[in-house]
Every structure is written in structure tokens, then in C-alpha cells.
Design goal:
The complex is a heterodimer of chains A (about 260) and B (about 500).
Chain A: H1 16-26, H2 28-32, H3 46-67, H4 73-76, E1 97-98, H5 99-119, H6 137-140, H7 143-152, E2 154-155, H8 176-187, H9 200-211, E3 220-221, H10 222-228, E4 243-244
Parallel strand pairs in A: 2-3
Antiparallel strand pairs in A: 1-4
Helix pairs in contact in A: 5-8, 7-9, 8-9
Chain B: H1 9-22, H2 24-53, H3 66-98, H4 105-127, H5 143-163, H6 172-197, H7 202-237, H8 244-257, H9 274-285, H10 287-301, H11 305-310, H12 312-333, H13 349-378, H14 385-418, H15 424-429, H16 431-459
The chains are: A mainly alpha (about 260), B mainly alpha (about 500).
Amino acid sequence: MSLTNQKPDLEDSINVTEAHGRVVREAAACARENRIVDNGIGHISLWSLVVCGIVAFIAGGVYFGSGAELFAYNTSFRPGYVRKPPGGAEDSGPVPKEALAAYMAKGSKIYSAKCNGCHGADAKGNGSTFPALAGGIWPNGETERFAMIILNGLEGPVDDGKTYGIMPPQGIGMAPEDLAGIMTYVRNNFGNTKGDVVTTEMAKAAIEMSAARKNAGKSVTGAELTADHMKNLPGEKMDPKMMLDPITLAPAKAP
Amino acid sequence: MSSAIPTNPEQDALLRAGIDRSLRHPVMFFMTSGAAWLAVSILLGIVSSAKVHSPEFMAGCSWLTYGRVFPAHINAFIYGWGFQVAFAVIIWMTARLSRKECTASGLILTAGHIWNLGVSLGLVGIFAGFSTGMPWMEFPSFVWPVLLVSYFAIVIWSFIQFRVRPEGHVYISQWYILGAMVWFPWIFITANTLLHCLPGHPVMAAGINAWYKSALIFLFFTPVALGTAYYLAPKVTGRPVFSYSLAKLGFWSLAIIAPWAGMQKLAGAPIPYFLPYLGAAATVLLFIPMIAAAINLLRTMLASPEILSGSPSLRFTVAGIGGLIILAFSAVFLNLPDSTLPLTQFSMSSYGFEILALYGFFSFVMFGAVYFIVPRVTRREWLSRRLIKMHFLLSVYGVIVVALVALYGGLEQGKSQEDWQQPWQASATAYPYAVATTIAWCFILFSNVFFFLHLTLMWLRLGRRSSHPTLLAASHGHAVSPHGEDGDIDNAGPGYVSAH
């Protein structure tokens, strides 16, 4: 770059007054600007290098401390992992529920798995092959008779003379808690309001009784029910307001 | 090609004035509509923050539910304000640094309108319930090609100007600006094609989304802001940048580290185990480029305290660099596995980090650039020193509260989320922090409404006709009128007072 034009008033080609006037009028802000083309040669100070080094060290710790195991599924997916309760707090398990609600919650799952298909979500049946459970005499009647029907199925005419379809046995693999749940659920839902709980103890007795029947393995008939099972299941009655553990159905510990 | 560069300072000033004039309308359009979107975004931010602490606020209005207002707030901020002001700065600075007048300002202006149309349609889509649900990409998926095409139509001229510039030095600002111009299409196309066109596993999609957010901050907004600061600092103070080697360290470490960051948002999620920790380590390492640039710029700017006290551009830029330093320390502090990283996953602190980056750092440097550029392209000086001061102070108070409350309140929130015996509701709301955030956004709104009005008056060329800049403090200690000292006006020639 030549510097000859640095003294414009020495050059004839420029009308100084006019050029200066234009600059003031049109480019005042631009004319104020500095034009910096050179770069500083300041050194990178030692302390900033030290700070950056510490940060790089931390970053190394972040990566190699936690992430270096690449695809370590064993680290992130521990089989059978149970979350540790934080220090100071004791794991008191699930929140206790009232007995009736706890049994019904269990029963509602079984109902949708086993009964829903024929008797319907509203338990009204269809009036011909599938009888209604809502308001039915047998669900709301003696618990032993009801349990035998669930466990063994039912065929043939019933005591009001009607013949519905054949109900297959549902008791295979049914745990006492499940039977107790489903019975409590049906007796306290769909407009049925018995208000009592069929306990696990009663259900256990029913399963034993069912296995000891004369014609074990066959469906019960209306006649057999009337003859042998017109009674309630043995066992202590439970206060429906008693607090239970909703998973095990055992009485909850006092909080 | 030294013949292309006028050596006479007056001719040089006229050349620069010609460049400014060629870009007047696109630059002013991007800045003013950006400022309008900023005000809209802050208003939506107030509404969404108010809904956090008082959910019944505007509850009757289905298009103003939290799930729509919050994305609208952040998308208006990013695509309405952030990108548009970045466009203004990119096209103006590349033209100035390449010393070329812009020949395509009409096309840029048209593309700018299309960009605005895309943003408006996207926001209408969000309010109408067609949000994609991907953070920072909530616009319905027809919007992103519109944005991409108008992006290219806007910045392609800056590439051309760079290619045909007179031979010579490539300034530090140009490294950053060119980097941002190249990196943005890369991250935008990658994220959008992977999420919209080739959808894969949804957990990985969330990871890509988190990477996009981080890359947008560190590969677009950060380099644009740093390029601008590297332009303003020497330009206004009249001193060369403190250290060229530190600048090189800062640029290359940013370019190398930033693409790896982002996936730490998914720590503990079922994606390959190293990805979140790689993201966390990269975010920690980003301390290095951030602090290198911050030291370099502060050493340049703080060397001239008398200019710093007077110049609005420099004051905003210094505040932005202050935000950058806090951001750098937060990047380290928020990404420590087994201590802070789990607390940031579902709490406000990631929002705080984003607002700190977008407002506390990026926007402040952009305000500095606006206060520098507008008097040049309109050839009018800013109307009111008091409006600038109000803008500065309210913005600083506001962003300190929003960012720090969300950042560190978010950590407290994270701690209470980890305590599984507490009801979730209590920790999800974080009531006192949400109230503080709402109030702080109100401050920021107040400051930016005035900024928008001030800017609009400048675009209408209602600024002061004077050759003396609007300074925040009288130079040399004694009071001068905004028109300069008596009898001073005709003396304002080249190099008479330093630029502001």
C-alpha cells in the first residue's frame, strides 16, 4: 500500500473541502472507526493454561470414570436391581389399603382375565348362554356354592329350571388370593353390595373342598350344589376396613 | 490487489459507508423484526412461567396451555430473534470484512420475509396443536425446508463476498462467522432428516434432539457471538486483539469439541452407554474455547476503561462476555456424573443453561452489535442515552435472575426429585423459583419493548442527525451535550474521536 494519499491536500485530484463535506454528511460514523489489521502478540498466560488443564482433567474423569465402558449393558441394566432407599429413610413397602379395596383390586385383574370374555365387562351376561352376575342369586348367596362354580365350572339345568351354556372350570392354577379376590370383587361390584370380604383363608378351604369332591375333576351341577354346598365357607370373618398390604394381603404393620 | 483498497482514509470511509448503505434494508429488517419476535417470545415466556406457579392463569384458553406456550416461547426466541439478528450481523460483517458492497440486498430481503413467514406458520402450528414435540424443533415438519432454503438464500451472498474479497488477512471474526455459516446447515439438515425423514428408535431420536440443541448453541450462536465480539472489541477500542495464539486456540478447540456435546441429557437412558458421558465430557471441555475467547476479549476491551464506560456496544459486549464466563463455569459444574448431572435431567437447570447461553451471552453481544451497526446503516445516531441504559440495566437484572434462578434453583429441584418419598408435585412446581422467573421475564420484556421502539424509530430514520455518537457517559469526565462540545461539529473528521 502506498502512503501518498495520506496528505490529500497535497494532491490536485481531490477537492478537499468537497470530500471532507461528503464524509461529514454521509459517513460520519464510518469515519470515526478504527481500522485494525494487526494482531496482538500477547502470550497465553500460565494460569489460564493451568485452569484449562484442570478442566481437561475433570473432563477426562467424567468420560473415563463413567463412560469408558462403551456399550456396558451390564452396568446400566442390572438384573434384579432394586433401588436402594436413600439414607435415613426406611423402605416401608407399598402403602396399606383397606381390606375390601385391596381384595377388589386383585379381583378386578382376575375378572378381566378370566370372566370378562363371557359374562361381559358389566357382568350382565347375555341372558341366554351367559347368565348375569350383576344381581345374580348365586354370586350374592352362599360363598361355598359360588366358589365351587368358579373352581369347577357348571353344566346342566340350574335351580330356577333354566339351562345356560356350559361354564368351563376356572380353578386350574388359581391361588387362594386370586379366588378370594375374584369372589370379593363380584360380590361388591356391578351393583352387588354384599360388603363382606371372602378371605384368603376361606378361599384356601374352598380349594381343598373342591379337590375332595366325590366327582372331582368334573363340573358341578345344580343338583350337586343344592345338595352339598348350600353353606358359607368356613373361616374367620374379616373387617372390611382393616388395613392390608395390597400385594401380599397380609395385615399391614402399624405405621 | 492493493488497488482495491482505498488508502485515503476519507475514501475508505466512503467505501465503508457505501457498503453500509447497500445493506441498510436487509440489516434493519432482520434487526427490527428480530426485536419484535424477541418481545413476543418474552411475553410467551412470562405466560408459560406464570402457568408453572399458578396453573389456573389463562386456563380457559386451549391454545395457551403450557405445552403450547412454552415451545412457542423458545422457538420464537431462537428462530424469530436469535437467527434473524445473527443474519443481520453475518451479512453486515462479512460485507465489511470482505470490503464488498452487497449486490443482492433485494433477494436477501425477500428471503428474510420468507424466513419470517416460516417462523409465523410454525408458531401458528404450535398454537394449533401441531407441534412435533421435539424441543427446539417443535415447528410442524413442513417448516424446516422453508427455513433451510431461505437460510441459504440469505447467507450464500456472504460466502460469495468472502470468495471474491481482496487478498489478504482473514480476520478472527471471519473464522467464526464462516464456521457458523457452514456448521448450521450441517446440524440442521442432520437433525431434521434423522428425526423427520428417517425416524429410528425413539430413544435415540431424543438423543439426536438433545445433540441438536447443544450444537445450535455451541456451533451457531456461540461462534456468531464470538465473531461479533472479536469484531467489536478492536474496532471500538482501537486496540488489536490481545493475543492471536489464544484466538486460534479458542477457535479450533471450539470446532473440535462442540460437535461431541449434547447427549448428556440422556444419561441413564437406554442408549449406548458411552454417549451421554462423552457428551458430558465434551460439554465440560467446552470450558476451554469459552474461557480462551473470554480472556482474549476482556483483555482487549478492559484495557480502555474510558471507552468502555461510554460506548453502548462495548458495554453490552462486555456484559455478554461476562455471561460467557458464567456459562463456561456452568458447563463444568452441571455435568459431573453422580453429583450434578442426574439433577439436571428433569429440572429447570437445563432451561437456565439455555437462557444463559441465548440471552446472557448471545443476545447481549448481539445488542452490542445492533448499537454499533444501526447508526452506520441508517446514518443517524441513537436517540436516547437513557433508553439504552434502561435496556442494559433491566436486561442484566432480568437475565441474572432468570438464568441463575433456573440454573441453581433447578439443582435444588433436582435434589427434591431424587428424594422419592416427596410427592412429585412439590418438586415439579418449584414455586418460589417459578415466581422469581416470571418477575424477571417481566423486567426483560420491559427493557426489550423499549429496545424495539428505539430500533423502529431508527429504521424510520428518525434518529439524531449528528456526527457525534450517543455515548452512555461523557468522555473525559466533564458533561457534554449529545451533540458534542460547542463548535465541535465541523471538526468531526476521520480519526477525530474513536468509533462507538
